[in-house]
Amino acid sequence: MTLIEETRERLGPVGVWLPLGMTHPSPGEELAAIRRLEELGYRTVWAGEGPGSRELFAHSGITLASTGQVVIGTGIANIWSRPGRTAYSGARTLAHAFPGRFVLGIGIGHSFQAAKSGVDYRPLEQTHAYLTEMDEAAAEFPAPVPFPRILAAVGPKMLELARDRTDGAHPFAQPFEHTPYSREILGRDKLLIPTHAVLLGDRAQARANVAKNIEMMKRFDVQHYFKGWKRLGYTDADIDGVSDRLVDGLTAWGDEEKIAGRVKELVDAGADTVLVTPDGDDLASIVDQLERLAPALKAVTR
């Protein structure tokens, strides 16, 4: 099998994306949670890198050493956090130590992060240059154990870059319709690993969560998520009014069976692995929801 085929089989159709940077658990709480998710049958767990969060490669190494089989993904390792050569070296080290258990997800992040680095935000150009830097390091020091490299991508040009320069795409905070849209651009031979919000509750609760996330996106001026929604036919009225259509597009809500049904629809629409992410104020409540969902999500197949 190819690396992409092997990764697809290792990850399975359903994984988890944990908002560790927003819930701020202790290291011990993190490890206990990820071990519990592994026991529940989740085959891959991803976490992101944001302001004030832990350094993602160190975090991944600790997690890999403290678990048995779960595949750890970086969703995402931010380009502004380290040079491309350093990112390649870190991923090479983890992949060598834990064969088949590490997926490198990288991404350009947001304009406010570029500003903190003292540069203008030119996402496509800067991502292209970063991938080239990684490739040059790989040519000089080939990885003893290959590892998949996935690119955070929402818009068509970034998805095309993911298709042409990496092993696939990791879209974030996009509605259901983005999955078939992404698959059409990527083709069948690349990995598509989207996140998707899930909620054991009703639409009113889901609307409150979406409204909270929209407020945060506006506060940080994260425009490309909104642009992605509008590209799929959503309007300013949908966003400002938090319409039913937007809520239902962004969130799989309801009981366990309804949520599993939506995840299955995403897989059928082209996702290789759907990273479910429950909303919660703390890690314990998030893991509780994932425990309730585990039996239904285990039934999801490709």
Described by its quaternary structure, the protein is: single chain
**What gap, in angstroms, lies between the N and C termini?**
17 Å
Number of strands: 11
Question: Helix/strand-derived class?
Answer: alpha/beta
Strand content: 5-15%
Number of discrete helical segments:
15
Assign an overall shape.
Answer: globular
Low-confidence stretches: none
SSE ordering: HEHHEHEEHEHHEHEHEEHHHHEHEH
User: Fraction of residues in helices?
Assistant: 40-55%
What is the CA-atom radius of gyration, in angstroms? Answer: 18 Å
Task: Calculate the mean pLDDT score and round it.
Answer: 96
Largest sheet: 9 strands, parallel
Structure characterization notes:
- This protein has 302 residues and is α/β, with parallel strands linked by helices.
- α5 (84-97) links the parallel β4 (77-78) and β5 (102-107).
- Helices cover 53% and strands 14% of the residues.
Record keyword descriptors for this entry.
302 residues; alpha/beta; nine-stranded parallel beta sheet; 11 strands; globular
